Amino acid sequence: MDAGEVRHWNADVNGVSIHVAEQGPADGTAVLLLHGFPELWFSWRHQMAALAARGFRALAPDLRGYGDSSVPDDPAAYSIFHIVGDVVALLDHLQLTKVFVVGHDWGAQMAWHLCLFRPDRVRAVVAIGVPFFPRSPRSISEVFANRGDGFYITQFQVEPGRAERAFARYEVATVLKKFYSIEFDDLTAPPGVEIIDFLEAPSSPLPWITDEELGQYAEKFEKSGFTGPLNFYRMMDMNWRLLAPWNGAKITVPAKLIAGDKDLGVQSFGTERYIKSGGLKSNVPDLEVAIIDGHHFLQQEQAERVNSEILSYLDKFTCE
């Protein structure tokens, strides 16, 4: 089957306008693809084509704050309830009662919490790079307090505008390239140094993204800015407080985690041990795990392997 063209449209849902890229037959089984930081719907271009070619309806929104979706000014508009609320409202807009969901990075966080809040809307979930973590006894800022001011989450969370001013010293394409080329496991800058200054941008193109593709990302971020994406981080402590009712709750939806063996997120904070020791399985009982060769931006870096892992998993449900 021909994958067909990518179609673009916007939907007014949950008080914002959400841009959606869509590929595949309109009557195909829906797969919702949720991107991470600092990405767009475009980060799913390889998966959309593969899903569409297999007859699925691939739906990839720009999350609020990104790309051609609305960019609310107030950081409080970026809570986990707002983002997951956008997703549920989008499903309602499309009259889709239950879908497959695939998420990467922050999109994986949103996918897990969609499963937590509304398991009735998810047939199965595939998370890339980020496992489900139960609510911590302490807030995010407390957990990472000992890492100091150079830690990237701390710099993103504190003084509004600080990270944006630091980012503005570089061309947008350079900022993106700095994040896309991260390969080490401790995103902590030396004292007095901004994380964006600490990160390096390689002079040669990255093997998994062309300069033209990087330019497509940059064009959108030049328009929408980085404040929306950074506000996701600024709401982390608030999210921790809001999630108190789900303390100890497990993910009951069938799930698969795909992670890169060189992903800084997997290598940090005891994540690999949590995945391999059975800790994740205890919180997500119906779980499969695939650790593959690769870094953080796995669905672009190892597109064919990730496509194979996603499609083989979805086949278990669509061939029943």
UniProtKB/TrEMBL annotation:
Its EC number is 3.3.2.10. Keywords: Hydrolase. Pathway: Secondary metabolite biosynthesis; terpenoid biosynthesis. InterPro entries: AB_hydrolase_1 (IPR000073), AB_hydrolase_fold (IPR029058), Epox_hydrolase-like (IPR000639). It catalyses: (24S)-24,25-epoxycucurbitadienol + H2O = (24R)-24,25-dihydroxycucurbitadienol; an epoxide + H2O = an ethanediol. SUPFAM superfamilies: alpha/beta-Hydrolases (SSF53474). The keyword Transmembrane helix does not apply. Residues 30-299 form the AB hydrolase-1 domain. One of its GO terms (molecular function) is epoxide hydrolase activity. Pfam families: Abhydrolase_1. Epoxide hydrolase involved in the biosynthesis of cucurbitacin and mogroside tetracyclic triterpene natural products (e.g. siamenoside I and mogrosides IV, V and VI). Cucurbitacins have cytotoxic properties and exhibit deterrent taste as a defense barrier against herbivores. Mogrosides are nonsugar highly oxygenated compounds used as high-intensity zero-calorie sweeteners; they also possess pharmacological properties such as regulating immunity, lowering blood sugar and lipid levels, protecting the liver, and acting as antioxidants and antitumor agents. Belongs to the AB hydrolase superfamily. Epoxide hydrolase family. This is soluble epoxide hydrolase. It comes from Panicum miliaceum.
